Amino acid sequence: MTKEILINAFNMNSVGHINHGLWAHPRDQSYKYKTLDYWVSLAKTLERGLFDGIFLADIVGVYDVYQGSADLTLRESIQLPVNDPLLLISAMAAVTRHLGFGVTVNVNGEPPYLFARRMSTLDHLTEGRLGWNIVTGYLDSAARAVGQDAQAEHDSRYERADEYLEVLYKLWEGSWSDEAVLLDKAGRRYSDPNRVKPIVHEGRYYKATGYHLAEPSRQRTPVLYQAGTSGRGKEFASKHAECVFITAVDKAAACKTARAIREGAVKAGRNGDDVKIFVGITVITGSTQSAAQDRYRDYLHYANPEAGLAHFSAGTGIDFSTFELDEPISYGTSNSIQSVTQLAQEKRWTKRQLLEELKIGGRYPLIVGDGDSVASEMISWMDEGEIDGFNLTRTVVPESYEDFVDHVVPRLQERGRYKTAYADGTLRKKLFGAGDRLPDRHFARSFAI
């Protein structure tokens, strides 16, 4: 059976996200990110285009590696200022019926006991349309902001995250039984005390004893997203993730990573198709090839490759401002995003080559063309890359998403590679075509009451 393409809008509660510099375009409205109208309008557009979800990125900290300061970050709004993504979800959920929400929250942000309630609340309010993108952090600026000297060593961050997830699973899956809520007005019994129990956790990083404060939501555990593809990141994904966001420069790289992730899931006792794999892409489209190319040339006038390089500096921990354009760069071992550093090392990118890669302000694969040609290329990525879908970045908003909905979605539908209507049910049920809850073979279910 031919797979239908899954698509998330890739966004952030900020002016700049991936394709830097385009905030300066006369038609760009990303500066309105502080308003509900901006997000409500976007949600309606995405649901009109039958997007599976909006994937909201987030960082805690600032990009201050490039030139040893945050000056360029502030001038070009390189993910700064950045507001809390969680607070957007209720508003967008209120004007949609099917759109899913994948929200990034760092495991170091708050104790798991409080976070569990926050996510259960949102899963209730969205009627089961919530996903969580699990991140462990990589910015020293974030660590310093909360009183630490620097980020913990890369692999140890995943060890801490493993335990964080264990506490959450105990709360989400193991505190309230499905039969605990009675809502018996005549008998004055809202819930059955015999079917609710406190969790007890005493580990290396966390201690928690108490009842989960929220009754079971539609999904119990939100859909679990994850974006780390280092060796330790893949191990973490194999155990926990249901949706994995990968960066791939070409289809062969996507295929290699996708196969490794699925093989890891099988080794962890899961099925290979228990994991959906998304690649980040940028699309610039129009009613004709000529119109799309005109859009592209127009956008290039405003894109800032240097701002993209500053973002890349944060991802690798290397200050590229200190290198000449063609000077060899020793990437070495990084405590930042290891997969990014490894890719740069494999490609032996110089500063000049990086700036060329970043000419639209970001470094994800770029597809420019009319709806038909974009659809063909996306289908090629799906089939040759053995992936399940895409995180679609924004360029000039709102037109980049509107153009995609108007020009690309109909062409994908004509080829039978994109849904023509939403399925019913929760985000998990829509994505996997099974139940609302995690399957029993997932590690979380070992804590079920």
CATH architecture: Alpha-Beta Barrel
What would you report as the Rg, rounded to the nearest angstrom?
22 Å
Spans where pLDDT lies below 50 across 5 or more residues:
none
Q: What is the element string, with H for helices and E for strands? A: EHEHHEHEHHEEEEEHEHEHHHHEHEHH
Structural class: alpha/beta
The span between the termini is 37 Å
Mean pLDDT: 94
- Indicate the CATH class: Alpha Beta
Residues in helices, as a percent range: 25-40%
Strand content: 15-25%
> How many H/I helical runs?
15
Write down the overall geometry. Answer: globular
Number of domains as seen in the coordinates: 1
Which homologous superfamily in CATH is the superfamily? Luciferase-like domain
What's the CATH topology label? TIM Barrel
Neighbour order of strands in the largest sheet: 1-2-3-4-9-10-11-13
Main sheet makeup: 8 strands, parallel, barrel
* Quantity of strands, as a count: 13
